[in-house]
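--- STAGE predict ---
source: upstream dedup step, 1 unique chain passed
mode: sequence only
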Amino acid sequence: MLKKKKKNTEEDMQNLENQPQEEPIAEELQQPSEQEQVSASEEEKLKAEIAEANNKFVRLYAEFDNYKRRTSRERIELLQSAGRDVLVNLLPVLDDFERAAKAIETATDVNAVKEGVELVHHKLRNILNSQGVKEMESIGQPFDPEIHEAVTNIPAPL
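--- STAGE serialize ---
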């Protein structure tokens, strides 16, 4: 019996070898299945989304970097122009004080010189008020360290 089984299996093997191989099996191996095509398209889609997200990130980072540079440059320009504006506004007052000093040297009428100095003083106050400097009412009021600054320090008695 064993010999018959061996013969049958040998014959079956020869029959299989002699039969022409089916080509559809080879074609199936070469062509990706629908599931593989779907996963490949999903993979490409995800890669495109990642590339788009990276592109957005790089652009946002560059935009933020430009924003930081622009604001720092504007801040520097503002500080320079603010100081320059104050000094330009104070130049006429300086000229008036120089004229007053020359007038004091040759003046015989003290009241006229006094009135000129008061006018220059009033002009200086107006310029400072226009720049946002306000006069503090602190004369006769108790010292408040939140508002006032101490000019001198007097040692306490021992």
